[in-house]
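User: Could you check the structure of this?
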Amino acid sequence: MGAVSPSARKHIPGATLAGLLDTTPHDTDRHDPSRHDTTRHSTTRRDRPTVAAAGIALDGGGPARPLRGRERELARLDGLLGRARDGHGGALTVIGGPGTGKSALLDTAVRKAGTEFRVLRGRGVRQESAVPYAGLHRVLRPIADLLERFPSVRQGGVPSLALYAEVCSLLAESAADRPVLCWIDDAHRLDRVSLEALAFAARRLADVPVAILFAARPGQPGSAVAECLDDIPRLALEPLDEAASVRVLQDLTCGALDEEAASEVAEPSGGNPLALAELAGALTPEQLSGTAPPPRSLPQRSALRAHYRRRYLRLTTGARRLVLLAAADDRLELTTLSRAAALDGIDPRELEWARASGLVEIDGGRVDMPSALVRSCLYADASPAERRAVHDLLARALEGEWHAPRRSWHRAAPVDEPDDALADDLACAAETSRSTGMHADASRLWERAASLSTRPEVRAERYLSAAHEAWAAGRGRRARVLLRRVRPLTSDTNPALAGRTDLLHGDIEFCDGLPVMAQWILREAAERLAEATPADPAPALDALLRASAAADATGDHHYYGAIVTRALTLTTRALQDGATPSPVVELIHDYFAGMAAAGAKRRGEAVRRLRRVLTLAETIDSAGVHRTDLRTWASAAAVVIGDDRRARDLAARAVAAARDDGGAVGLPRAMTLLAHCEMYLGRYPAAESTAREGLRLSMAAGQRNQLIEQRAVLALLAAFRGDRTTALSHLDGLAEEGGRRELIRATSFEPWALACLDLADDRAEDAAARLRQPAGSGSGHPVLRLLAIPHLVEACVRMGEHEPARRAFAAFERWAGYGRGPARAALAERCRALLAPDEETARDHYEEALRLHEDGDSAFELARTALLYGHRLRRDRRPRDARPHLRNAAQIFQQAGAEPWAARARAELRAAGETLDGPAPAGGGAGRGPLDALTAQQLQIARLVAAGATNREIAARLVISPRTVDGHLRNIFTRLGLRSRIELARLLR
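Assistant: Sure, the predicted structure tokens are below.
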């Protein structure tokens, strides 16, 4: 049905509606050709194939490509369709601004429904929004043959309860033979009667297999959408994040853009899918190849720019000026805006008109725009004179010394030609922002200063500073983009600048890219820095230290050896030059010399060298040089020589120093090392707390490799407890992602964790099979293979294979002999006890192991040793002596939440003639509520479920996987004797 003239509208109610329905063809599988008019008319012929390839529907079509960055939304659709398949209806309102992908999401719902559903389609049309029943006419055409049974719908007339009830019954009748998917696009343009009727039905179809989807733009208070759909569950479409935007652009350009280039192109889009499509369609061949700079705004013919321009031009002159002021400053305060308005003579009432337009939002004292896309579109459409005027107003309105960097920014923002004076002013402002920890602001100021600088060397230095600050702010992709601008400005005559550029590039690659590439980049950086400063090898040695860390993460110990050799060449030359070497150079020399000796199994030399590293680290600290990286390397040296307590203390100090630095770069790595050290000491609760914080910090800093390392640690700690659900959730996808990045150290945690789960489930054969890796086979990380040997010994002894256990233990015994810490010594004593040929020898080793566990404050490993000791005593027919150890083990396991181990300890205790009660059942015990049976995390999940959160939303909130949430929910239902989320919510209320 097309647009209806006013003269014809009076004929539509009554029999005319039924007549039109009876005479209109209705093919339930045919797409409505009038859908997506805006997209179709705003997209050029050249753009169409590219835009459709991104999953943004044109003319109602488009391939069945998964929508990028919409996993949460697709999960909600799956849930709605799944309930309809099970005979239960539901409704959902998809809310989003222009170009956010509402129509693409509806198309995806249709594809997911397939032929299993009857699909009823409708769409609001602006020209028909005043025509009663126009929307129902579109929706009900495919089922016009059912109208004979519903006279109120057939005859139209005045809206009434009878008519709305019959629409509801009509939809239910249409679902008699198969589920129905009814969707209405552009519901904000639907006529009021149709919207009310469909919303009425949506509230009453819980027991009928009808799923109703509305797609609408955000409605203002009092609008039809706000009033009619207020109580329908909503799904707000947020802008795509940077990673999803990059993937969309790479899809649109068939991979012609790499990640850095795509990240730069995506900036003006604000994460809007249609904006990404318009940007991709407007890229020139030079921009695709990287020889020309990317677009700074959407193309002139952009439908989105035209949309926001129309809304902007409807405002008064003063309101337009206020909107542009907000567009020119993304950190604008209401006081500053009011001051600028007074300077320009704008009536204060204009602010309310600007706010009513929806182009400006005021939240407390903050003035903002609905999205970064609206900001970029309106700013791009402003004339140069308008931009100069608003920036001048803002520079004059910003008062106070703390606003000096922003004043500098606004003075320079409208300038198009290079200006060294302005560039120097921006550089000073960038330093001020950096010193106060405003790294993102500092990066933007450095970048602008670079663009206004005339000398290439100065421009390169400033782009490099901008990249450093972007990386410190956790914006790795932006830092890579800025580094691309540095490289054309570096030359062979400035190896120091080239070396520092490679150093930052390698650091980013190590933390958020491919460490195997990082080790090569950092090695090249070291050579350039050595050439630039032959008298001071410290910068080159710093690069080699980082390269060695990358080689260790990839398990490439051949390349690690080459790095060590090169570092020793540089340090030896510096020590032989006659000048007094700095303590830093001495520390690095002893570190690499000690690592080389350890690799060559020269134990005495390794211990001597690495202990000197610890002494030098203390000397440097006491001299007031607080370097996070030196503490990190000293901690690693302490790990190698077995001084785990010293390693933990140094790692904790490295974390404290990284926090004091205020940047996001070094802290995740320091947290990873601290989690490892606490795990080596057997302090598992502390290690888990550190790893969880490190996980959050790694996500915030954009350091995906560190995030994988933290997930691996969390998986192993959960496996130690026998918590299969949590361990597998952390391992989910870890091997694939870690393997793609060649993170051998992180992926080596998986077989160890799975073996620990097998031991907890009493599957010793499976555990041994996972841990048996021949020495020198190249599989797994050698240090982690050594650390896992106590579990391999236990598995082999349980199987009765003592000789393989002895061979494996010999390697661990040699390595554990390096140190003097109690943790490894206790594990070595436990292995000796397991391998002991007689009762007396086993007893001596078990007793010594328990003493060392207590000395090392390792409660969980003490419980594991006590369980093994108790089992040995009971098997040797000494149940009375076994009971205290088994009782102690059961209590520790129960407190640690290690239920599989606690159950085994209780079973051993029963076999020894004593019973220890397990966890209290739900509702058991005087004064105990039914929720007392839940763990702290289970209770938190239960409360979020009661609040209406989905599994994915709960997972994102608690930084766990949806699979883990699902496992916890099953346990919650079992413990509380419940069957559904509704019952759980009722119980909590």
